[in-house]
Amino acid sequence: MATxxxxxxxxxxxxxxxxxxxxxxxxxxxxxxxxxWIAEDDACEDCxxxxxxxxxxxxxxYSSADFDADEPPLHPHCQCTIEQKTxxxxxxx
Length: 93
Prior knowledge:
- The chain has helices at 2-24, 45-52, and strands at residues 27-38, 56-57, 62-63, 68-69, 81-92.
- The protein is 33% helix and 32% strand.
- The strands form two sheets. A three-stranded antiparallel beta sheet has the order 2-1-5. A two-stranded antiparallel ribbon has the order 3-4.
- It has a domain at 28-92.
- The chain contains two helices and five strands, in the order αβαββββ.
- The longest helix has 23 residues, at 2-24.
- The mean pLDDT is 86.
- It is of the alpha+beta class.
């Protein structure tokens, strides 16, 4: 397919450009705050779905058909927690 080939060529070109920028040192490190929903052992389906999202940025909103939440508790008797971390990311100028 021509489209798949074009995407592959574009990805290769972008990787090559990133390598050139890195070689020139035109980047810096920034910190990104992230969170992870930790579901309790007998978590409901909504809490388990939130936990399945994995590590997400701090401004991420967990959502399903029944709720939108930034962090636990999601419902009465919810025992889920949030774990937080700071991740360093390379930012190219």
